[in-house]
Amino acid sequence: MVDILIKNGHVLTMDPDSGDLKKGEVAIENGRIVYVGLSYNGKADKIIDASGSVVMPGLVNTHNHAGMTLLRGYADDLPLAEWLEDYIWPVEEKLGPEEIYAGVRLACLEMIKSGTTTFADMYIHEQAAARAVEDCGMRAALSYGMIDFGDPQRAASSLLKGRNFVKDFNGAANGRISAMYGPHAPHTCSQQFLRDVRKQARKDGVKVHIHVLETEAELNQMKEKYGKCSVNMLHDIGFFDSDVLAAHCIWLSEGDMDILAEMGVHVSHDPVSNMKMAAGIAPVPKLLEKGVNVSLSTDGCASNNNLDMFGVMKMAALLHKVDSMDLTVIDARKVLEMATVNGAKALGIEAGMIKEGYYADLIVVDMKRPHLTPLYDIDSHLVYSALGSDVTTVLVDGKVLMENGQVLCMNEYEIMVEASKAAKKTDSQHLIDVLGLQDYSDDQ
Ligand SMILES: O=c1[nH]cnc2c1ncn2[C@@H]1O[C@H](CO)[C@@H](O)[C@H]1O
Ligand SMILES: [Zn+2]
């Protein structure tokens, strides 16, 4: 007797060995997939009928600042440096662990509702993020965002926070949480600090998550300070390895791409954020050609402004088509791979494919919708037509977090009220709070 059997769906395994199963069955026991095939010969405690739907691996969002849901729309349409330095960083000072907990709960709700089962995060008060992930049942690779700005005291306290976070949370929530080190970026962290973090991560056996060359300003700053770009600087101090997840990677030279490929660095691509922040266009087709593992991500909600990976998939495809003026440069299947297989690979988790022995992290996408009719090509629909709201059922670690559009792992209403209240801590003059436009007080 298995725990769950998913029947009657079109199973997109994303596993090259099994391919797609037109009417497949997936059996789940103790959080793992124990059978993928045409017909399971056995009983199950629970049957999920996926008729008219696609069953596929849950999406993996490899670069987020989940607590930034609280800053959604807080400061838009500003130059990136001004946005970060004059608006985002000062307001983050006002947010404490309770606010971040509310913000990450909101992020998890939004991610679950749009088919994301795992995310990688880098932010402040990350213990609160861990608590939110533990409570809601998602899987996550979390890191404490560390910045020293060349100040040795700040370096020491940042590293201590990062170390404590790794000590307390790596492997937490029954293994659903893995911890990473999260040095912010090569231009906001000193070389010595980056060396120390690198050393500590190797010692602790955990991965590293960092922003790399998001802006041309970073490239210029690095050239001025070190006489070389971020990639060369990091390479020269021995920072790179196959345990490094580098977000953005926009301003790369041909040589930089070769270094990333040679060192096995994973690149997280944020097409929506990059367009919104006018940061530039990452050379994704070239990186893929060189064998770099490129995954997809939303970035934080202050630069996206939502966490819908379906939107990210579509934008990833469109951006590189128009950039190269070549429609064939990236196809729907490649984008799906980036959002599932490649994401799981970057985070080192046995997910991203529906495969025996892998975690039962999967989603059901309803194909019987007006904007998905008629249906010629499933990959095409998932990337170019589907929306996060087409996801009806979500499982993580073999637990059903959402079923038929009903979120089971948290109270949606309560999460929105709590997040709206937490946003008041920003002291923003513009906040239309829970007593204004978003008046939930009379409901229920
Ligand atoms: O697009 C971005 N570029 C650089 N930094 C960012 C971006 N989005 C968020 N953060 C900042 O990274 C830190 C992580 O702990 C936070 O301060 C967050 O505001
Ligand atoms: Zn970021």
From TrEMBL:
Residues at which Zn(2+) binds: 63, 65, 211, 299
Output one GO MF annotation. Answer: metal ion binding
Q: Which of the seven top EC classes does this enzyme belong to?
A: hydrolase
Query: Which pathway or pathways does this protein act in?
Result: Amino-acid biosynthesis; S-adenosyl-L-methionine biosynthesis
Where does the Amidohydrolase-related domain start and stop, copy by copy? 54-400
Task: Provide the cofactor list for this protein.
Answer: Zn(2+)
Entry EC no(s): 3.5.4.41, 3.5.4.31, 3.5.4.4, 3.5.4.28
**Which Pfam families does this entry report, sorted A to Z?**
Amidohydro_1 (PF01979)
InterPro entries referenced in this protein's UniProt entry, alphabetically: Amidohydro-rel, Deaminase_MtaD/DadD, Metal-dep_hydrolase_composite, Metal_Hydrolase, MTA/SAH_deaminase
Membrane-spanning parts: none
Which reactions appear under catalytic activity for this entry? S-adenosyl-L-homocysteine + H2O + H(+) = S-inosyl-L-homocysteine + NH4(+); 5'-deoxyadenosine + H2O + H(+) = 5'-deoxyinosine + NH4(+); adenosine + H2O + H(+) = inosine + NH4(+); S-methyl-5'-thioadenosine + H2O + H(+) = S-methyl-5'-thioinosine + NH4(+)
Q: Name one GO biological process term.
A: S-adenosylmethionine biosynthetic process
Q: Which superkingdom, per the lineage? A: Archaea
| Residues where substrate binds | 92, 154, 184, 214, 299
Cofactor binding annotation: Binds 1 zinc ion per subunit.
The alphabetized UniProt keywords are: Hydrolase, Metal-binding, Zinc
Which Gene3D superfamilies is this protein grouped with?
Metal-dependent hydrolases, Urease, subunit C, domain 1
Indicate whether Disulfide bond appears among the record's keywords.
no
Record carries keyword Amino-acid biosynthesis: no
The protein's job, in short, is: Catalyzes the deamination of three SAM-derived enzymatic products, namely 5'-deoxyadenosine, S-adenosyl-L-homocysteine, and 5'-methylthioadenosine, to produce the inosine analogs. Can also deaminate adenosine. The preferred substrate for this enzyme is 5'-deoxyadenosine, but all these substrates are efficiently deaminated. Likely functions in a S-adenosyl-L-methionine (SAM) recycling pathway from S-adenosyl-L-homocysteine (SAH) produced from SAM-dependent methylation reactions.
One further remark on this entry is: SAH is a product of SAM methyltransferases and is known to be a feedback inhibitor of these enzymes. As a result of this inhibition, organisms have evolved efficient enzymes to metabolize SAH via different pathways. The pathway found in methanogens differs from the canonical pathway, it uses the deamination of S-adenosyl-L-homocysteine to form S-inosyl-L-homocysteine for the regeneration of SAM from S-adenosyl-L-homocysteine. 5'-deoxyadenosine is a radical SAM enzyme reaction product which strongly inhibits radical SAM enzymes.
Note the HAMAP family from the entry: MTA_SAH_deamin
Subunit structure of this chain's protein? Homotetramer.
> What's this protein's family per the entry?
Belongs to the metallo-dependent hydrolases superfamily. MTA/SAH deaminase family.
This one is known as 5'-deoxyadenosine deaminase
Species of origin reads Methanohalophilus euhalobius
Per the UniProt record, the lineage of the source organism begins with: Archaea, Methanobacteriati, Methanobacteriota, Stenosarchaea group, Methanomicrobia
